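Troubleshooting: if your tokenizer reports a length mismatch, compare your output against this known-good record of 464 residues.
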Amino acid sequence: MTGDKKAFIVTSPFIVGRRGLKYLIPYNILLGLSTLVLGPFYGLKILFTGKYRKSIGGKLGNVGPEMFETLDGAPRIWVHAVSVGEVTAAAPIIDALRGRYPGASIALSSSTETGQEMARRVAGKADLFFYYPLDIPWVVKKVLGYVRPDILVLLESEFWPNLIDRCRRRGTPVVLVNGRISPRSFNRYRLSRFFWKEVLASVDWLGMISPVDAERIGAFGGRTERITVEGNAKYDGLAARVAPSLREEALESLQIGAGEQVFVAGSTHEGEEDVVLEVFAALQRDFPGMCLVLVPRHTDRREEVLRKAREKGFSDTVTLSEIRAGRKRRGERVIVVDVIGELFKIYGLATVVFCGGSLVPKGGQNILEAAAWGKVVFYGPSMEDFTEERRILEATGAGKTVADGGALYREILDLLRNPDRLLRDGQTGKEAVLRHRGASDRYARRIGLILEQSRINQPSARRR
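Known-good structure output:
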């Protein structure tokens, strides 16, 4: 589905009527009912836990126009990446866009507080960071009036009907980059194809990661002539971020010796920490000097994970926040990372890696982060959201599926007893990551073509 450039430009829906999308009325009714039902719940959660407190104002459009005064260049490009994973892909695309348009104004929005933190850390070439507004008509209209983009760039599968419709009415082109449709998402989209077909008709171009993703988006409404396969921009972002200084920073932060063997279990979910702790206890019989760095996917599970570690016999478990507060690590074998945004650099100091969300049915987590450091990555069978990454790493020997804790223990033990093979397989995986670079430039080039066509079709347009 790699249609040529002319195809998607000629069929691009710039000149369209200004009616709202046919199915927006029932969509907005459902949205309103959901808000009435869930609003009090989230209100209490904000009040009593503080969660969402930083982001709720921005999500409701409570930002003044002065916030957007830095957007004084041209073209004006709005990039939206929902959370940490999407931001990782957005950063190299923004770098590539900056290379093509040095004087552009680039605004990057994210939906989560962790995504906002990551955006400020890795997307330094963006001019502005802000929270993505809820897809409520008046909120979308208000924020869109502040940003006034010449193009809207959505990451992975961020289809927001009211925003897309409002852009269509304004004549603002909308594109999807690094498009990914997981099997679970595909089943949901397919059930409501009648709706998504109309929404996707207002998207000017759909740049997908793989042929499978391209087929899926076509099956629930994407127009074949607007779909191309461009690859995964995350390879570019991860390759660019790997640096010896980051590894040294992680060693110092966790108070780990340079020669210490480290088992990193990243992005673990409920049900996986027990398995990892049992495997680690067994590994200690052969490697008593090894330490375990346990990084739960959700840091608000800190107390639960600590309790599990102590129940498994690791009573002296320490957390990263305790170390940062001044506690000295004195031989503790288990470190729980309860701070957001540390996992990528922690992978740099790993001897072996387990990547979570895979021994439980969560679809897996990003295995490329560890592979970019030259690490062999173990994971369970539930990797539905990362099938292409899994295929690439397993072809090199750097990715290994395990069925359960027993298999994880045996496979890790085998590699630790064969350090040359451990090093060779990890390096082969890193080389595979490097070979797959280049998607960011392809996405930026396609975005540029659509921007140019938009100027031809609407030469006097200054977004209303």
